[in-house]
Design brief:
The protein is α/β, with parallel strands linked by helices and 313 residues long. The chain has ten helices and six strands, in the order H-H-E-H-H-E-H-E-H-H-H-E-E-H-E-H.
């Protein structure tokens, strides 16, 4: 039995080392990976002068904001800290809390799906982020973040080999690159590209039944929100930008209602009605959460209008 355990441990160690080396060789070739932008965004979060407008969320923030419009209209210095919903809101919020300052205006626009998992992000996004950003913040990661990160490190070589066998060798699954971000942190290159055809989702079974959010994510989010308030930041929660087709995606309406109920339980609410965050399908770029440039302008104008209204009140 002892010999079996020793051999099993040795096998796992060799497997992890070989996987790590293989993953390094695969990803070392990619010089402009989309997730490398996290380091640039983090540097902007650290160094941007006050007064700051920090926008937090997943790719709906990265692809849906024109920060120059915000800067010109609100006379603040924007930091677009949106990148990818697969990173987990926990990972992103730790840095937002760590580098927040008094008098920051923080706009939270998390995708609804953030509240329906165990806070660990997704495989392999989190593992790729750790690789490309030199294991940033690995000491503070939760158990479920580590589970998904380790799963991702095992997934990368397998995905590469599957592509090799099919003579189709995708090195990564992301359409955009780190160089696609401007100095504010907006993904700006997609604004010059034609939109893809918006799917109709006619075959999906749409459910409007309220889906309760994950209990642990609810408690964690409220704790994080309170930490920002304690640091004397002003925090507004806005619905994420989405095109109408996204509402017909399975149980998303149930998740929207579940998020509204979650905020209401804690005396919170979205800073603007959900309806104002839903844009026509003509604003679709390549996912329901990604807007083309016409949609980016509409979404940014919405934020400017609502921020002015709230601050004036």
């Amino acid at each position: 039995m002892k010999r079996f355990l020793l051999r099993s441990i040795l096998f796992l160690v060799v497997l992890v080392v070989c996987t790590a080396i293989f993953s390094f060789c695969i990803n070392h070739r990619i010089k402009d990976h989309y997730l490398k932008a996290y380091t640039l965004k983090l540097n902007r979060l650290r160094t941007t002068e006050s007064p700051r407008l920090i926008l937090v969320g997943g790719s709906n923030v990265a692809f849906g904001i024109d920060s120059q419009m915000l800067a010109d209209s609100l006379k603040m210095n924007p930091v677009n800290f949106g990148l990818h919903a697969g990173l987990s809101l926990r990972y992103v919020m730790r840095d937002v809390i760590r580098y927040s300052r008094s008098n920051d205006l923080i706009i939270l626009m998390p995708e609804y799906e953030f509240f329906y998992n165990k806070g660990g992000g997704e495989c392999p996004t989190l593992s790729l982020l750790l690789y490309y950003n030199h294991m940033h913040d690995w000491m503070d990661m939760s158990f479920y973040e580590w589970v998904n990160a380790l799963h991702g490190f095992l997934w990368i070589p397998g995905n590469y080999l599957r592509g090799f066998i099919r003579r189709n060798m995708p090195l990564h699954t992301y359409t955009y690159s780190c160089s696609g971000f401007n100095s504010y942190g907006d993904e700006a290159t997609h604004r010059d590209y034609p939109s893809e055809k918006c799917p109709t989702n006619e075959e999906n079974d749409v459910s409007n039944e309220i889906l309760p959010v994950n209990d642990k994510e609810e408690a964690w989010f409220i704790e994080s929100y309170n930490k920002l308030i304690e640091r004397k930041a002003t925090v507004y929660i806005f619905p994420p930008a989405m095109v109408e087709a996204g509402l017909a995606d399975g149980n998303r309406m149930g998740k929207i209602k579940g998020c509204e109920a979650f905020f209401k339980r804690h005396g919170l609410s979205y800073a603007s009605p959900i309806e104002q965050s839903i844009f026509p399908d003509s604003a679709y770029f390549d996912t329901p959460y990604h807007l083309n440039y016409a949609g980016v302008q509409m979404n940014t104008q919405r934020l400017i209008r609502e921020i002015r209204r709230i601050r004036g009140r």
